[in-house]
Amino acid sequence: MTEAAARHTPGTPCWVSLMVHQLPTSQEFYGALFGWEFRPGPQQLGPYVRALLDGREVAGLGQLPPERHLPTAWTPYLATDDAGATAQVISSSGGTVAVGPLDAGDAGRMAIASDPAGAVFGLWQAADHLGAAIAGAPGTPVWNELVTRETSSIVKFYQAVFGYDAEAVVSADFDFTTLLLDKKPVASLHGVGNALPRDRGAHWMTYFEVEDADEAASLVRDLGGHVLQQPRETVNGRAAVVADPEGAVFTVVRSGN
Question: Fewer CB atoms inside 10 A, N or C side of the chain?
Fold first, then answer.
């Protein structure tokens, strides 16, 4: 387990958040699955809580307005020193800014955007709230991967916005790009072609560390969620793709490192 950096380099995934229809039920699910406790967070977009692990913040959960019949999905937030300027670059590079930038109390400024393929992500300009306080321990987000149709055009968008370096692995049956900042991998893009889920389209996938991927997948099922891909060995470790009771998809992984 490592303490998170004091201030994240722009472009680094620094936070994950989930907007749900039934906040108390979701708190019960994730509390039982990851051992999270909760305390209130900024309320600018409605009821919102921060998930804590050993007293330190690791993720956020918010309540969607009753009239918003949106699908629930985990959203990664990418650090920026200027949410307004980054939002302008997103718009001029073919992306869309759907919410903000707006102030989240004293915590910072945020925006919600999507890339040219429609994958949703957030921007976070930190003030009092820097982002996740720990990384690597069970119950913390450890990786973010964009699942999209193909990576070659989309990677140019993210490079234009955040200045990433990119390392691509492209073969006849594999399309994978790693995004790097200061020579360190920070996220990845996975092109899956026609295997992209029609009901979801391009999307960011959050990986949460667990002590045992098989046990975690079984617990997800016991708590009313669903196992979409059974636990299997991957390049990232033993992992399973699961969904919470509202359908928000995420991956549980026992990292190989």
Answer: C
> Residues 151, 175: contact at Cβ < 8 Å?
yes
- Are 164 and 179 in contact by the 8 Å Cβ rule? The answer is yes
* 42 CB neighbour count, 10 Å cutoff: 18
CB-count burial class (<10 Å; 0-12, 13-18, 19+) for 29: buried
Angle at the Cα of 167 from the Cα atoms of 11 and 254, rounded to 5 degrees: 75
Tell me which amino acid residue 109 is: R
Q: Which of 252, 194, 196 is nearest to 223 (CA)?
A: 252
**Averaged pLDDT, 127-144:** 90
CA 227 to chain centre: 19
For all residues of the chain together, what is the average pLDDT? 92
DSSP state of 4: P
For 3-25, write each residue's pLDDT tens digit: 444 678 999 999 999 999 999 99
Q: Looking at the chain, how many residues does it have?
A: 257
Please give the Cα distance from 176 to 151 (Å, whole number): 7
Domains with residue ranges and CATH for the chain: 2-134 (3.10.180.10), 137-255 (3.10.180.10)
Q: Do 76 and 186 contact (CB within 8 A), yes or no?
A: no
Cα 183 to chain centroid, rounded: 21
Return the closest-CA partner of residue 160 out of 124, 116, 204: 116
Residue pair 146/119 in contact by the 8 Å Cβ criterion: yes
Paired strand residues for 191: 148, 175
